[in-house]
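Risk register update: the risk of archive-format incompatibility is retired. Evidence:
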Amino acid sequence: MTSSHKKILLIDDEIDFTEVVSTLLGFHDFEVKAVNDPLKVDLLLDETNFDLLVTDLMMPGLSGFDLIDKIRSNQKLATIPIIVLSAKVLTNEERKFLLRHQVQVMQKPFEPTGLVDQICGLIEAPAGG
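Archived output:
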């Protein structure tokens, strides 16, 4: 399977959620690093090359929007695929922000196979495309 050894950074403040999603993705041969504090993401991004990020939007300390903005303004990370998993009902401005930053959005609750398919599609797509 092409997902073998692909690294995913999962960012969500809900520990139970990151455990469930990490297990799901692990079954599909993804290597997952879960972070429950968005303020600790910088260090991980500096020391590890991830193939994809999955993040929530509503988190304490640093919102998913701020995190995405920070990632996209980093030259090294500007083209990394990002998927948002969130229960938040998005405003038009928020939708435009996510489109502008080339972020895929999946609403919680989500279909597990849909998430895996989305990840595979983004990781296997040509960079920047």
